[in-house]
Amino acid sequence: MGHHDRRSEASGTTALSEAILPLLGGLRSRADAARRDLPDLGGPIDLLRKEGVLSAVLPAPEGSGLGWVRGTARPLSDMLRHIGAADLALARLVEGHVNAAILVEIHAERPARDAMRRAVREGALLGVWGADGAQPLEWVDRAEGDVSLSGSKRYASGLGHVDLALITARAAAGAPPRMFLVPATNPSRHDHEAWTASAMRASRSGTFDATGLVLDETGFVGPAGALTTEPWFEGGVWRYCAAHVGGAEGLIERWIEVLRRMGRLDDPVQRDRLGHAMADTIAARAVVEAAADAVEHSAEASPQGVERAVAHGLMAREAVEGACIRILALCERSLGMIAHDSQGSIDRMRRDLSLFLRQAAPDAKLDRALRTAEDIGPGRLR
């Protein structure tokens, strides 16, 4: 496991979260204007890069250790929520960047850690691609001490934007996954046509073919099986939940604007719907913040403490999903066909949030949390 200093750098992260606030209006306007075509996130990513969002994952003094240093969880939650309210696809890429940095900082030895930091200093966007394609990704040791890869990853977000991707591969079917950091900019390895979903189009997702890549020690991130070490695996679900809450907040903001233009903002029935939707977002935000705090504080806790924090995060995921589903239903009932108008401000956010909520194995996540909670009660999931 890599060696790292997790002392608090929260003040720098809080300042960064506040610094991006003036950018959000422009990010949202760009996202709404591009709703009918395939939006290009290159410009928004450049804005965040210039503001120091990407370099924030570096240790001080170049960054604040965003996501892996104590005291940065709550500001990170705020940042993902704010970006999610403007553009969920952009929030998805930022969350992937932070997740990749966390995994490298926590698990990698110095060669890979230094390689990642050097790339980020030069402006690189990181990503995490875990889902195997038609040919599951495998790795093979070479005589020179290097590793060669074969296979592909699907649902690879940020193709064409991500410079370095953290991917998983197995030595053989059924073996524990091992993490690798791979160059991801070669367009001949990208298949954008593989992404056929009707939403999150701006994330530029697709399939990444890793066949033939050869990696040295700068690409090795921990031993096989390190990926599932908690609280850095399932414990991190609160991050994308923060983006979900932001998406719900952004949807409500757009919904209010539509009702105001229609002259229906004072309609008692509409106000009842809006009130319930806002109550759900406020509760969901509080749930995510509590989960972020619990997971962050558990990083050096006992195994039992870690598992309780992870269960807290997984329960938060369930609560946020439920809140967002209710908000989507209220918005669609309120606006009717207007919510589905591809030329309106609601449709893309509605579709993106609905798809982004569909994370892998939700039932298994809930069952894992319940197995911890059923013996101690929900009040002790901290």
From TrEMBL:
Acyl-CoA dehydrogenase C-terminal domain sequence ranges: 241-354
Keywords, alphabetical: Oxidoreductase
Pfam family, one: Acyl-CoA_dh_2
GO function term, MF aspect, one: oxidoreductase activity, acting on the CH-CH group of donors
Record-given protein name: Acyl-CoA dehydrogenase
Native organism taxonomy: Bacteria, Pseudomonadati, Pseudomonadota, Alphaproteobacteria, Hyphomicrobiales
